[in-house]
Amino acid sequence: MATFAKPENALKRAEELINVGQKQSALQALHDLITSKRYRAWQKTLEKIMMKYVELCVDMRKGRFAKDGLIQYRIVCQQVNVSSLEEVIKHFMHLSTEKAEQARSQAQALEDALDVDDLEADQRPEDLMLSYVSGEKGKERSDRELVTPWFKFLWETYRTVLEILRNNSKLEALYAMTAHRAFQFCKQYKRTTEFRRLCEIIRNHLANLNKYRDQRDRPDLSAPESLQLYLDVRFEQLKIATELSLWQEAFRSIEDIHGLMCMVKKTPKPSLMVIYYAKLTEIFWVSDSHLYHAYAWFKLFTLQKSYNKNLTQKDLQLIASSVLLAALSVTPYDHTHGASHLDLENEKERNLKMAGLIGFSLDPKRDSREVLSRSALISELASKGVMTCVSQEVKDIYHLLEHESLQLDLASKVQPLFSKISKIGGKLTSASSVPEVQLSQYVPALEKLATLRILQQVSQVYQTMNIDMLSKMIPFSDFSAVEKISVDAAKYNFVAMKIDHSRSCIHFGNMDFESDRLRDHLTVLAESLSKVRGLIHPLTKKASKPDTYILGLADIVDKEHKRLLARKSIIEKRKEEHERQMLEMEREEESKRLKQQKITEEAEAKRLASEYTRREEQRIRREIEERELQEAQALLLETEKRGKKKGKRPIIEGEKLTKQSLIELHISEQLKERQEMEKKLQKLAKTMDYMERARREEEVALIADAYRLRLREEEILHEREQRREIELSRQHHAGDLEQKNRLARMWDNKGIFQNGIVQRREAEFRRLNEEREARINEVITARKQDRLKRRKLLFYLRSEEERLTRLREEEELRKREEEERRKKEEAEHRAKLDEIAAKQRQRERELEEKDRLRREALLARPSEPSRPVEPVARPPDSAPASGVYVPRFRRGDRTESPGSGPAAPPEPDRWGRRDDRRPSSNRPASDRWR
């Protein structure tokens, strides 16, 4: 990577390399300078470098280099001088367009040139050989070799510029201009694929603008200028799409325009809306959406009538006739009859979408067919006064097809009217945005409507009719078309009819179709065969007991029921097993197919990549060799021309020329010429020096004479000017004296007038001063009162705030004391409850202990030897034993007689607890029941 101290050095180096034919090196040097971080401050030299850089990129068709350089230059001058970027981009597009036009004109000149020897021959021999080998004509080959590369580069230029300017708010106009030029390029050369890509690119740019709203230089779509530019681009896109017959892309452009209008919540100008609805009419007509086509025409009619003040009566009549005929072209029956729920939901979504495009806001919960329908549109046309503007022929057609009934000669009446309206139409003079209106396009739809009306009226009159008779009643269509229309009408329940070709007749009315007759044919056949079998082999009646039959019948029914249930379960299992096997087989086959497809795709991708790499290498090598050969030939021609001008012979003859040898030869020739030129310049400088010295020596005497003559002339002139000035001063002095004497008599009046003015102004000044003092006093008094009121108010507010604070603190203190008191009471209550519970548990333990002792005494009584019971001494303060026997080893717990041994330890509680407390001796016997 080359480094330069100044950008000017890089520019000089690039020019030197260009002069010696090394454009690639010059381009690389400029690219290194532009992408370097050292030169990020904008200066005028960088603009010159960018101009030279884009010229080299265009000459060498280096689109990638151009894009990188423009991106770096945008970073440099985005915040400093964005107009410089605009100039560079315009220069870049101008060069690309110019090169493409030159290539196209060159290819055309090659095709038109007569460069054959035999003028009677149709083609040259080499053209014939190439056409047999490649299958291409001369023009196709020249286009592929000359025009196509430059057109590819021009298309890449447009894409690059749009990508660079997509989020630049300061260059929105340039972005719009580039988009318009790209659209015109696609239109001029019928590039439908590039047009679709261009529309997708612009659509993605707008989506990214809405997605990333925090960008620094993002365009503001709410601004009227930005919105107008974006809308102009979309409308141009819509025009080009319709001119190229890309109706799907045109519909997507309509959706883009509608989305942009909904995004900014602003309706565009009426002139743009006229174009919008005019293109909608074309799109809906091509897509056979006659109902929306009619609504679009109605919107167009409303706009033209409201905003177009120059609309003539003839144009208004033509537009109104188109609106009415478009409404009549809608089929009079609903196409959703008998449709599934999914189809109805899809149709509902489609209707909501289309209604939004044509400017109707529908309720999603309400059926849109009630709002957007043929009958609703015709009634609205009548209420809005469209019927009063249509021509007489269209009115007659409307009355015959809509209001007349039971007219079997309807076709003979409407056919002349169809012939008349087919000749009406043309370009509108006062509505240039509206396309050319031709009423003849509605004739096939009106003929279909007339056929439906005739079939509807005939079905009300006849039950059976001959096919030939019906064909005579509908002369403008053959019977195959009538049959197709009738099948469609019968499908959607508009007419009930059946065509019998075997008898050449038509049956009208609600009759059973063949499918209804065959619905129960197997049941009828089974019943008939059962009757025949009964006649051939009658059943013999046997005497049997009813009870036996009934019992056997119950067993049979039970067994048959069980057998059927078992068979059903077996069938279900077999079905599930079969389905599982089929699913496994399908999965295996699908996995095998995907694996094989993946292997095939990988192999094909590898082969294509290697083939593409090999072709690219060959192409690059071939281009390098051809370019070096061309440059060597150009250098040789230039050297030979220079040698012929100087009378020299060719320098190299009979040898194989190379680019390096010619460059060295060219450089040596330039050095020789430079040395010779320097010698000539030195000789010329010496000669000029001698001539200048001689000229100056001759001029010395002449200059002295001229100086003396000039001095004398200036002295004479000075004396003349002095005399003239003295005379003028005398005249002015005399005039001033005369003026003074004339005005002297006004001196007294002047003093009186001056005194009056001074006195009047003094009085006015005193009055104004007094008024000012009074106003100041009033203001001071008012401010004092305001300050007093404010102080009182502040004192009142502060006092009130202190009172409220004191009340709030007292309330909080009271609540806190109540809370503490409540907690204390709860703690005391809980303590009392715990004490009562403890006493209760103690009583229960005592009772349990007594019961246990009693049970043990009862159990131990039979095993002991009978012996007399000794009375036990009871303390005088103890309670009676209540007849409960206490063993001897337990008696020490209750009484302690003198001289007795120590008391035995208490037996552990049956629940694992020990009770070391002694029972109370003075408790009455009845306490255990408390």
Structure summary, number of beta strands: 5
* Poorly predicted residue ranges: 112-124, 128-139, 511-518, 648-655, 863-883, 892-930
How far is it from the N-terminal to the C-terminal residue, by CA? 112 Å
Give the overall shape, derived from the CA principal axes.
extended
Oligomer: single chain
> What is the helical fraction, as a range of percent?
over 70%
Count the DSSP helices.
Answer: 27
Given the helix and strand composition, which structural class is it?
A: mainly alpha
The major sheet is characterized as: 3 strands, antiparallel
Mean pLDDT reading: 77
Strand proportion = under 5%
Order of strands, widest sheet: 3-5-4
Rg over C-alpha atoms, rounded to the nearest angstrom: 58 Å
Can you walk through the features of this model?
With 930 residues, the protein is mainly α. 72% of the residues lie in helices and 2% in strands. The strands form two sheets. A three-stranded antiparallel beta sheet has the order 3-5-4. A two-stranded antiparallel ribbon has the order 1-2. A hairpin with a 4-residue loop joins β4 and β5. It comes from Acorus calamus (Sweet flag). This is Eukaryotic translation initiation factor 3 subunit A.
Set out the fold topology.
Elements: H1 7-19, H2 23-35, H3 44-60, H4 63-77, H5 82-112, H6 125-134, H7 138-164, H8 172-188, H9 192-211, H10 224-243, H11 247-264, H12 270-286, H13 290-307, H14 313-328, H15 341-357, H16 374-383, H17 392-402, H18 410-421, E1 425-426, E2 437-438, H19 443-461, E3 464-466, H20 467-473, H21 479-491, E4 497-500, E5 505-508, H22 514-517, H23 521-536, H24 546-645, H25 659-743, H26 747-860, H27 888-894
Antiparallel strand pairs: 1-2, 3-5, 4-5
Helix pairs in contact: 1-2, 1-3, 2-3, 3-4, 3-5, 4-5, 4-7, 5-7, 7-8, 7-9, 8-9, 8-10, 10-11, 10-12, 11-12, 12-13, 13-14, 17-18, 18-19, 19-21, 24-25
